[in-house]
User: What shape does this take?
Amino acid sequence: MFPKMIIMKKSILFLLLTVALISCKKDDEILQPTLNSTEIEKLPPTTQIGANTAGCLLNGVAVVAEGDEWSEKNPHCGYDQGAFVLLFRQNITEGGHIGTQAVYITTNSNTILEENTKYTIKEQESGKFAMFYVIGDGSIADERYYTTTSNVGELYISKLDKEKNIISGTFWFDAVDSQNKKAEIREGRFDVVYQSMGNKN
Assistant: This one.
């Protein structure tokens, strides 16, 4: 009788360990993007912990803060007395580094940011505007796309912790270049530790 009980206990233990290993494998698969990930799955999650992440879809293609070869942090966020600046960049590569693409969003000091609040992104003169730009290394041309009175967007602040300097939120906007070619920014999200406007680190 005892050997049977030992065999049963071993079988149950083996079954539990197998289930635990399968669960862990599934969790890993969810957290880590694969080569077959969709563009939206390549974006960072919408966290509120100061993870220093940012990303969006540009015309359906993922743009994510990558690289730290610049003088400012990437992503870089400054916040002071209501004025807000978010900038993040991603290298463009085709065999080698041929350029940088970036997303820039700002508000003016007349805008008091609050949690769970939406803000309209408009033309540059409003002080609350956004742009997408490309800086080429010679093989590709520079490009500039700005929000305007008719090509607008929205910034949503989901968290603003002034003690821990954490600001998180989402955004989207439409921007056009001088030829009226449009850049559609969608599913934007950021979760950063911000700096006061005067500091660069």
